[in-house]
């Protein structure tokens, strides 16, 4: 059995073929798609976060709205760039969204990826400490977030407060018990995957990672997952970790599918540079008749290692088509693979 959800980048563009013309369209359609996904029996609704782009950027209002409209589906991010985040303010927003959803928030965070502007986090008021990199800053922000989500008091109360305080040091409010165990790290390398395990975070692995050894993408990603699990066991955490992978998978069941994705059937891994020094490998797109997809996905080693599969959806094609993409996988592919 596998949890199956969707991952949306929340693009919008005022162009002829886009069905998501504005930020309002993107947000409202995201809510509608999450509701539809829950009705179809999917397990998760996840959203990418990018700043300075015509994409989803501030996730907590959206997640809270989805939490209020749904009752079962997991809701989350994949991922929030921690270089831009005040971890205490983030803990407040995340706690509120988690309480509204009844404890269904699965919060994916990471160092982030190259953004639309140079050092965009500086415009948000953040800069690495002397001798640190922006990646160091992201990891330090994450460590603070994990600490405050434990719910322990740390702030000295005012002796003459406006409202009565409980005894002792004060914590971030609202506090949502258990949220700290539902933080995922989006690891781009084996080293950051093992770092996440040591801190007790779940693993979220995307459709790209650092090219470490030249093997096919799914083989490298499976090795990353195994390294994460080994580090988790060594750390002695009492609970089982969660692991997700993202894939672009399209079952070609009608002419519309073939028109959109019929040419993707021969897709292959790609290698490129996401910055001047980081060589990355990008996973292929899976597109084919359901029986073909079943054979191909059964050979994907990383999917086999993960408990959760996030399907990327082309949100600019609209809610109806996004729902169709999910329904096709849930109906024609997942049962044949034993995922349902």
UniProtKB/TrEMBL annotation:
Superkingdom classification of source: Bacteria
SUPFAM superfamilies: Bacterial luciferase-like (SSF51679)
Coiled-coil annotated spans: none
Keywords assigned: Monooxygenase, Oxidoreductase
Segments crossing the lipid bilayer: none
Example of a GO cellular component annotation carried by this entry: cytosol
Domain Luciferase-like: 9-256
Oxidoreductase recorded as keyword: yes
UniProt keyword annotation of Oxidoreductase present: yes
Gene3D superfamilies xref list: Luciferase-like domain
GO molecular function, a single term: oxidoreductase activity, acting on paired donors, with incorporation or reduction of molecular oxygen
Name this polypeptide is given: Monooxygenase
Origin species: Streptomyces sulfonofaciens
């Amino acid at each position: 059995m596998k949890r199956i959800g969707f991952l949306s980048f929340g693009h919008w563009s005022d162009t002829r073929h886009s069905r998501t013309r504005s930020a309002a369209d993107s947000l409202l359609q995201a809510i509608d798609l999450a509701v539809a996904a829950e009705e179809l029996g999917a397990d998760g609704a996840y959203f990418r976060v990018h700043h300075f782009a015509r994409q989803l950027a501030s996730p907590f209002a959206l997640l809270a709205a989805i939490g209020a409209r749904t009752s079962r589906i997991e809701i989350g991010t994949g991922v929030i760039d921690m270089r831009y985040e005040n971890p205490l303010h983030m803990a407040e927003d995340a706690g509120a969204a988690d309480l509204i959803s009844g404890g269904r928030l699965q919060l994916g965070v990471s160092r982030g990826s190259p953004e639309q502007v140079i050092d965009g986090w500086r415009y948000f008021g953040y800069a690495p400490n002397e001798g640190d990199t922006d990646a160091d800053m992201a990891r330090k922000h994450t460590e603070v977030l994990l600490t405050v989500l434990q719910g322990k008091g740390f702030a000295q109360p005012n002796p003459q407060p406006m409202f009565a305080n409980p005894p002792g040091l004060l914590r971030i409010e609202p506090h949502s018990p258990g949220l700290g165990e539902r933080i995922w790290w989006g690891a781009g390398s084996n080293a950051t995957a093992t770092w996440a395990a040591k801190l007790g975070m779940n693993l979220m692995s995307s459709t790209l990672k650092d090219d470490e050894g030249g093997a096919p993408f799914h083989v490298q990603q499976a090795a990353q997952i195994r390294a994460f699990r080994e580090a988790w066991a060594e750390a002695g955490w009492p609970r089982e970790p969660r692991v997700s992978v993202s894939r672009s998978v399209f079952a070609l069941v009608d002419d519309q599918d073939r028109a959109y994705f019929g040419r993707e059937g021969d897709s292959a891994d790609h290698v490129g540079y996401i910055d001047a020094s980081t060589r990355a490998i990008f996973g292929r797109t899976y597109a084919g008749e359901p029986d073909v997809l079943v054979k191909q996905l059964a050979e994907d080693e990383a999917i086999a290692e993960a408990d959760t599969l996030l399907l990327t959806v082309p949100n600019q094609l609209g809610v109806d088509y996004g729902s169709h993409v999910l329904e096709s996988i849930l109906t024609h592919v997942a049962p044949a693979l034993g995922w349902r």
